[in-house]
Design a protein that fits this description.
The chain is an alpha/beta fold. Helix content is 40%, strand content 21%. A hairpin with a 2-residue loop joins strand 3 and strand 4.
Length: 469
């Protein structure tokens, strides 16, 4: 495998030798293995990743890098594997304060009797700020460098992400009902436009149109999202076909399944990020493949809420781009993308009855490059190639649970724990190095979360509000 990977990766050697990359890098990462994701399945052993500014300058053998740049700072990780930063393609970061709230409850009851009433009482800027700060500590510690969020007060999330140096695809929310963030559709459109104007062009910030779901946005709202997505060149991030009940209600109310209705309105195209998609028929899968759509698979949330199983093997075989997301910590109950990757790989085998479904390399791609592709960011992140942003993660494989190492990709996909992630870089900047977060206020964030937990208290039933989950 080592020789094969070397032959397939000769083009990177040529890039490393080109005159454009002869300037000394700012630092070298020297792990035992690098899994670049592109080319698919490549494994580089005893190679160096050279970083200059915010970019990957070169990938080349470690010995050669040491000879060429003897004075460059070296980050030696002799027992580690380096992978691209993980891309969480579906989150509700502000909801992290509801982790473990009303667990083991059917979806409809969970939403209407517990989650929505709690949000109706507490949702606001301070709540979203505290939840998002907690989420970012967890996500960085577990290797996520980019997350696509869908929640109210998105300006608060964007402000925190910029300040912390984490990439964020900010969802511009749309729902049909008044809520604590916006009084009506015009109010939400105004706030979204202000947010888009303020952060457009900000390093590390991108956007999606984020209509909540077909059942919570009417035809005119969905058509408007299509128009704005085309005008701004943005993905459309939406829950689709999550439950059997959702589909039955659509058939009853609109005379067709949700995806057919979305197609009629122009939503089903290369911009679509269809979250969950646990209930797809053969023709719908063919349509998604033909139109270049992406699915965001959230296996742990789907399992916990008994929503169903996405046909991941069939989707991949059809050529659909399948990314991974955690969903919220209220329905998962964590934001650990390494765990999500492992669950996705195992679940695909069980659902399909095929032990070859979703290989370790495919699972890693789903958690990295496929998420970047869904967000339109695959030219920037999701794989380790010269010229791309220096977003990557180092995971220590020296622990008992990941020894011996025959295939580092297999160890990451099936045995690695997020506690083994020691280093996280975004745009060439260390957000965590040798296990230490770059931020000095983790204790404050955790204390703040405990205070919110005491304020929210135990679940209690109440009149359902209309908040976004």
């Amino acid at each position: 495998m080592r020789r094969r990977a070397g032959r397939r990766y000769n083009f990177l050697r040529l890039l490393a030798l080109s005159g454009a990359l002869m300037h000394a890098p700012d630092f070298l990462i020297l792990p035992r293995w690098i899994l670049p994701v592109e080319p698919a399945g490549a494994v580089l052993e005893d190679h160096a990743l050279a970083v200059r500014g915010e970019r990957i300058a070169a990938l080349l053998p470690g010995a050669e890098a040491r000879r060429r740049w003897p004075r460059a700072r070296r980050v030696e990780r002799p027992e580690h594997v380096v992978i691209p930063g993980l891309v969480n393609a579906h989150t509700h970061a502000g909801m992290t304060l509801l982790r473990g709230f009303a667990d083991d409850t059917p979806l409809k009851e969970w939403l209407e009797n517990h989650i929505w009433p709690a949000e109706n009482r507490h949702l606001g800027e301070d709540y979203v700020r505290a939840g998002t700060e907690l989420a970012l500590v967890e996500m960085v510690r577990t290797g996520t460098t980019c997350f696509a969020d869908m929640y109210f007060f998105p300006d608060v999330g964007a402000e925190i992400a910029v300040g912390r140096g984490v990439r964020m695809a900010v969802g511009l929310p749309m729902v049909d009902f008044p809520n604590r963030w916006a009084g009506d559709r015009q109010d939400s459109l105004r706030k979204n436009a202000e947010l888009y104007g303020r952060y457009r062009g900000e390093a590390g910030i991108s956007f999606t149109m984020a209509p909540h779901a077909p059942y919570s946005v009417d035809d005119s709202g969905l058509a408007l999202c299509v128009e704005l997505a085309e005008e701004r060149d943005l993905p459309i991030h939406i829950h689709v076909h999550e439950t059997a009940a959702e589909i039955a209600e659509s058939v009853k109310g609109h005379g067709c399944r949700p995806l057919a209705r979305l197609d009629r309105l122009g939503v089903v195209n290369e911009r679509l990020m269809a979250v969950h998609a646990t209930r797809l028929e053969e023709g719908e899968i063919a349509l998604l493949a033909e139109r270049g759509c992406s699915i965001v698979h959230c296996p742990q949330s789907n399992l916990k809420l008994a929503s169903g199983f996405a046909a991941v093997e069939t989707l991949l075989a059809a050529g659909v781009n399948v990314a991974l997301g955690t969903d919220s910590a209220a329905s998962n109950n964590d934001l650990d993308m390494l765990e999500e990757m492992q669950t996705a790989a195992l679940l695909a085998k069980g659902v399909s009855g095929n032990a070859e479904a979703v290989s370790s390399a495919e699972a890693l791609e789903m958690a990295t490059l496929a998420g970047a592709r869904a967000l339109g960011l695959d030219g920037e992140i999701g794989s380790l190639r010269p010229g791309k942003a220096a977003d990557f993660v180092a995971l220590d494989l020296s622990a008992a649970n990941t020894q011996p190492v025959y295939d580092p990709a297999s160890q990451v996909a099936y045995a690695g724990k997020s506690s083994q992630i020691t280093d996280v870089w975004v745009r060439g900047k260390a957000l965590m190095e040798a296990g230490a977060l770059a931020w000095d206020d983790e204790d404050r964030i955790l204390a703040q979360a405990r205070d919110w937990g005491a304020r929210i208290g135990r679940p209690r039933a109440g009149r359902p509000s209309a908040e976004m989950r």
